[in-house]
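Deviations from the work plan: none for this task. Representative record:
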Amino acid sequence: MTESRRENRVMVELIKVGRFYPPDIEALTEVSLSVSRGEMLFLTGKSGAGKTTLLRLLCKIELPDKGLVEIDGMDLGKLSRHKIQQLRRRIGMAYQDFKLLPERTVARNIALAMEVTYQKKSFIRRQTKTLLDRLGLKSKVHARTADLSRGEQQRVSIARALANNPDLILADEPTGNLDAESTCRVMELFDEHRRRGATILIATHDSSIYADTDYRVLELKDGRIVDTKENHGTTGEQE
Amino acid sequence: MNFLFAVLGQTIRNLFRTWNSQFLTLVTITLSVLIFAFFSLIYTNLLNVGKQLGDDLRLIAYLDEEPVPALQEEYRRKILKFDAVDKIVFVSSKEAYQRFKKQLGTDRDVLTDMPQDFLPPSIEVYPVRSLDSLTRIKRFSDYLQTLPGVLKVQYGREWIERFYSFVQLMRIVVILSGTLLIMTTTFTVAHTIRLTLVSRAEELELLRLLGASGTYIRMPYFLEGGLQGLMGSACGLAALYILFNWIELQFTGSAMFGIFPFTFFPLPIIGTIIGLSTLLCAAGSFSSTRKIVQV
Ligand SMILES: Nc1ncnc2c1ncn2[C@@H]1O[C@H](COP(=O)(O)OP(=O)(O)O)[C@@H](O)[C@H]1O
Ligand SMILES: [Mg+2]
């Protein structure tokens, strides 16, 4: 079992996934997708194309109405509650709406993710400091997240997603509220995590962040994958 | 170890964040423990009074004739067969006469013309001094009545029966207030926890998304409930102790306290009350968080 898991080079697998909302919204239709371990992938498409829905399926916030979703070789539909919890601890997600606790400090919000995985206090302190330094939020450690600007909140939510050095990183419009410099810092961080071996899915409509990269770019339109741009074929093969 | 730190930290933060509803719960628990403990204290002291009953717990069986030693042995055996007793005393006609004479004191002249055996011989039975034997005294008396040669059985009937029914009443009060205590504490604790769950819905949702284990999510509430039970019952008992000392102060020197020394709960009982309250509150809060761990 562990043997086959180790050899599993595919981190994310979607087979003919469909997701519908009443009355007749097809958020995703027949989406098939395979993402290798250590790959960075961009999901693009207009607002309402189904990007967020796709990411939410990957950590079982939502269930597919059709098809199969597998993470690291495990069928999400068949996992026990306990296994789902364990899996979520290996996934870091930066939500489009941030999902920060507004009355808590920046440090507390980030620490929460690491307490859930039972990290050492010293690690939590060090990791929080490093991430905030890297994202240019050094002075905001003790600020309530409610008092931050949108761009600052966005970076806190990214810091929280990366805190546990997760195997799978899901970033939903991570640069939507950021200026060019912050965008650059965030992308640098993502790249470092990819080099460490993390698989990264980024949903975005900001073409500037994938225009000059070699990574795969998928375009969603009305819930379907319409275009796969495989920039020079460099994907997750390099691990 | 990290788990412990994380959970304890979470618990303490929870307590601080919702201190006002925590305080109300604490007061509720304190009051219900105080009420329950108050009645229990009266009850246990009544039991002690029962144990201290002196000669009132004596049964006297009058016999038709003087029992020879062999017959005395027979009576003793039959009495012991019914119940354990403190002691059995045989009083002959002559002894009864002497006692009576002593009681009459200066009026003993009236006895001069009487034969020395005009009083019947009797058996005095002293049951073990406990409330249990108090409740059985009627049956004991009925049993003695059935023994051969017994004319009549006497005991401090009315006094004992009244005391006994009072103890019965207190027992019901204790049981009722105990039930009330259990209901109010579990209800208020579960209610506060449910309120806090609603106010922390956002945080709980986030914890689920972060993959927090059921234990990590529920443990703080379990500890919170336990802590409230512990502090609430300790405060309730402390309040009762102060009350107890105050009452004792008001009555010092009065005759009642001389006869029946009123005592506070011994340590094991205090421990039991606190332990049970803690357990009750912890269980109440734990069960009310059952639903929140669904993925
Ligand atoms: N909970 C929901 N209930 C109803 N419709 C929804 C819900 N979530 C998403 N949708 C719809 O599904 C479609 C895809 O949404 P979404 O995945 O958020 O798009 P994107 O993230 O690409 O902007 C949209 O039309 C949206 O209105
Ligand atoms: Mg979206």
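The pocket of magnesium ion (ligand 2) is lined by residues A 51-52, 96, 172 (CB under 6 Å).
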